[in-house]
């Protein structure tokens, strides 16, 4: 049996770019003043991709119980027909675990800790773990694809390999 430990690194646009988009208020965003100057629109923050096979965008809320560290990764998933965006609405940090699209490679896994105010948009086909909120029950606003076709593939981590997210 082998063990792989993942240390969660800070979530940044540059580090996360191979897997998707970081959704956040940032100085380099395109900002458009709206509502007679009382609001800044941080514009076009994620490349949503949900139209394959006649899909359409839907908005949901995922309410999830918190996890504790160390956390054992037992399953990963991907969505071959559309992107999937998660925006935390309860103001807690959370964990993001990803691997590149294609054949799943445990050695390519990366873990990130998202700060309050950050969201992620997983690009189509990127392997990722389900919601990993910390400290309390957490709500995520989720934008993903509805439509025909199987848009969720899961892979179980073989029992001979133990993967843990640690501090």
Question: What is the overall silhouette?
Answer: globular
Structural class: mainly beta
- The ordered string of helix (H) and strand (E) elements is EEHEEEEEEEEEEEEEEE
Please give the number of β-strands: 17
Q: Can you walk me through this structure?
A:
The chain is mainly β. Strand 4 (30-34) and strand 5 form a beta hairpin. The chain contains one helix and 17 strands. It starts with a strand and ends with a strand. The strands form five sheets. Strands 2, 10, 11, 13 and 14 form a five-stranded mixed sheet that branches. Strands 3-12-9-15-6 form a five-stranded antiparallel sheet, with no helix packed on it. The chain has a three-stranded mixed sheet with strand order 1-17-7, with no helix packed on it. The protein has one helix at 13-16, and strands spanning 2-7, 9-10, 20-23, 30-34, 39-43, 56-64, 71-73, 75-78, 84-88, 94-99, 110-114, 119-122, 127-128, 132-133, 138-146, 153-156, 161-166. 2% of the residues lie in helices and 49% in strands. The mean pLDDT is 96. The longest helix has 4 residues, at 13-16.
């Amino acid at each position: 049996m082998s063990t792989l430990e993942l240390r969660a690194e800070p979530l940044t646009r540059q580090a996360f770019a191979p897997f998707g988009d970081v959704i956040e208020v940032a100085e380099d965003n395109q900002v458009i003043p709206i509502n007679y100057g009382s609001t800044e629109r941080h514009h076009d923050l994620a490349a949503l991709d949900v139209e394959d096979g006649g899909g359409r965008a839907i908005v949901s809320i995922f309410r999830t119980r918190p996890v504790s560290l160390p956390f054992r990764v037992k399953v990963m998933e991907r969505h071959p027909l559309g992107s999937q965006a998660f925006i935390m609405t309860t103001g807690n940090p959370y964990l993001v675990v990803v691997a590149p699209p294609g054949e799943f490679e445990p050695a390519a896994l990366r873990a990130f800790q998202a700060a309050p105010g950050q969201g992620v948009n997983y690009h189509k086909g990127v392997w990722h773990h389900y919601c990993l909120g910390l400290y309390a029950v957490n709500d995520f606003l989720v934008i993903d694809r509805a439509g025909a076709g199987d848009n969720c593939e899961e892979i179980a981590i073989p029992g001979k390999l133990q993967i843990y997210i640690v501090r």
